[in-house]
């Protein structure tokens, strides 16, 4: 195989001698690209943000902002990245001669104070600057009037939700974002979008008896997993990257599955939607475009845009965490998982998938290929996340509803819960208390009482067991109030 390398700011950089577990952040800083910083090492502060060229949804290439502190450097073999240093114009000696428009606006509007977080903000802002469909300020009309989360130039502030400024400089940062126009006709990064993104390359990178392996096909991946059932599967690495950084976890053998074509498909069939296990959540959100309302409610509350740019359903389900945000929503949608191994595939109802704390029916030589959501969808859905912060936080409780209410009667109900048991669960008793009954204050009050008793909530630093139980009941009452208001309006 060709020696592993990454194109950084237009120049190929060999990955060697970095260890397979080395993060992209450490790789860059060791080579003098010190704009990216380590703040939290967990993907919560965005100081490490960089841009990666990925296959686009509406164009050949999208510039996607990611957390460099979480991604293993070997996972970007053959790929193309841009750091804060690579945004401005430089002369032949590498001396900066002209600021990038994002850097310019950040400078003149006071968006940089201590400067520690600035390069990360700049990369996340530049990713949004190059997003297709964003309406530049000079083209804005009355129809483009902005709300508190979108600028008159179409800039989506959620693109910065994973970036933390400890100097409380958010207002001038927002001003800089809202002042951006359209990229110029000769902007090299804008022109780069019209060319295909780098294709994934087969990788086998070994140092110090540890290996990162990127297979070319699903068949090769499951064969490797049969040979090495102890291997760690990595897609977005938003969970494994934290284990590497915070708990010093190391793996002898890592299999990268994030670019496998078979895991990156999204298909809408007559009776179901199939979402590949390695499709990033941001891409799912853009491609579904609100057609699954429950997921449309979930996505903005799932971590941050930086995390969603790499995080996947397969990874969220594969970790088996009882506080992951996607399992309750997928449970309410009646989803199933497609498990693949060298022997073939099998389909498992998600309600039967989890068997214990971070345990599932998935065998050591299996991987999640896809998630299937049956159609038609329930007409009444909601996702309620109770957490200490509105965005970029771990749930204390997550509740997802999918109800079919016809002529005032609940015909069917699926309720998914997270944070109240050792696994994500269906609220079966509450569902039974609703089905066949009128959607009325009395029925909802009784069902809310039942919902408060579902699961086995525990007390921890996020919430007490009593609070979690209370929030379950309140969540159903909130849904009733919302649906009643919708009918009355």
UniProtKB/TrEMBL annotation:
Q: The organism sits in which domain of life?
A: Bacteria
Domain (FAD-binding PCMH-type): residue spans on this chain: 205-378
Instruction: Enumerate the CDD domains for this protein.
Output: fer2
Q: Keywords assigned by UniProt?
A: FAD, Flavoprotein, Iron, Metal-binding, Oxidoreductase
EC numbers listed for it are 1.17.1.4
Residue span(s) of domain 2Fe-2S ferredoxin-type: 4-87
Please give the Gene Ontology molecular function terms for this protein.
xanthine dehydrogenase activity
| Presence of the UniProt keyword Oxidoreductase in the record | yes
User: What InterPro entries does the annotation carry?
Assistant: 2Fe-2S-bd (IPR002888), 2Fe-2S-bd_dom_sf (IPR036884), 2Fe-2S_ferredoxin-like_sf (IPR036010), 2Fe-2S_ferredoxin-type (IPR001041), 2Fe2S_fd_BS (IPR006058), Beta-grasp_dom_sf (IPR012675), CO_DH_flav_C (IPR005107), CO_DH_flav_C_dom_sf (IPR036683)
Q: Which Pfam families match?
A: CO_deh_flav_C, FAD_binding_5, Fer2, Fer2_2
Coiled-coil spans in chain:
none
Give the first-level EC class, as a single word. Answer: oxidoreductase
* Keyword presence, Oxidoreductase: yes
This protein's name? Xanthine dehydrogenase small subunit
Query: What is the originating organism of this protein?
Result: Nocardia goodfellowii
Lineage summary: Bacteria, Bacillati, Actinomycetota, Actinomycetes, Mycobacteriales
């Amino acid at each position: 195989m060709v020696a592993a390398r990454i194109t950084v700011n237009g120049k190929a950089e060999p990955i060697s001698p970095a260890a397979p577990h080395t993060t992209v952040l450490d790789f860059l800083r060791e080579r003098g690209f010190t704009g990216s910083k380590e703040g939290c090492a967990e993907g919560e502060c965005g100081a490490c943000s960089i841009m990666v060229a990925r296959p686009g949804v509406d164009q050949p290439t999208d510039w996607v902002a990611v957390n460099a502190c979480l991604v293993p450097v070997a996972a970007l073999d053959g790929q193309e990245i841009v750091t804060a240093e690579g945004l401005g114009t430089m002369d032949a000696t590498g001396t900066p001669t002209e600021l990038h428009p994002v850097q310019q606006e950040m400078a003149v509007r006071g968006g940089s104070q201590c400067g520690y977080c600035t390069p990360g903000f700049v990369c996340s802002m530049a990713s949004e600057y190059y997003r297709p469909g964003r309406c530049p300020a000079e083209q804005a009309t009355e129809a483009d009037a902005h709300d508190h989360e979108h600028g008159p130039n179409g800039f989506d502030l959620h693109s910065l939700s994973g970036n933390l400024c400890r100097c409380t400089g958010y207002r001038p940062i927002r001003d800089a974002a809202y002042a951006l126009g359209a990229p110029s006709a000769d902007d090299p990064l804008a022109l780069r979008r019209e060319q295909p993104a780098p294709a994934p390359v087969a990788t086998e990178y070994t140092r110090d008896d540890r290996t990162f392996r990127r297979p070319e096909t699903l068949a090769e991946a499951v064969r490797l997993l049969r040979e090495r059932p102890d291997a760690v599967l990595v897609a977005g690495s938003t969970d494994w990257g934290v284990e590497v950084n915070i708990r010093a976890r190391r793996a002898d053998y890592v299999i990268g599955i994030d670019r496998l074509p078979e895991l990156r498909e999204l298909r809408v069939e007559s009776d179901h939607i199939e979402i590949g296990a390695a499709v990033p959540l941001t891409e799912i959100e853009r491609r579904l475009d609100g057609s699954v309302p429950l997921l449309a409610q979930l996505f903005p509350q799932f971590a941050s845009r930086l995390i969603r740019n790499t995080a996947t359903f397969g990874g969220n389900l594969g970790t088996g965490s009882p506080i992951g945000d996607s399992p309750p929503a997928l449970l309410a949608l009646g989803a199933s998982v497609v498990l693949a191994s060298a022997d073939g595939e099998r389909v498992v109802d998600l309600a039967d998938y989890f068997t214990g704390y971070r345990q599932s029916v998935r065998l050591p030589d299996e991987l999640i290929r896809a998630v299937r959501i049956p159609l038609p969808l329930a007409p009444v859905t909601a996702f309620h996340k109770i957490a200490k912060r509105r965005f970029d936080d771990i749930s204390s409780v997550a509740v997802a509803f999918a109800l079919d209410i016809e002529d005032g009667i609940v015909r069917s109900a699926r309720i998914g819960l997270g944070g109240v048991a050792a696994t994500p669960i269906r609220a079966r008793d509450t569902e039974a208390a609703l089905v066949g009954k009128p959607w009325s204050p009395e029925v909802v009050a009784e069902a809310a009482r039942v919902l408060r008793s579902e699961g086995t909530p525990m007390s921890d630093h996020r919430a007490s067991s009593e609070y979690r139980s209370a929030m379950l009941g309140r969540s159903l009452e909130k849904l009733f109030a919302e649906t009643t208001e919708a009918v009355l309006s």
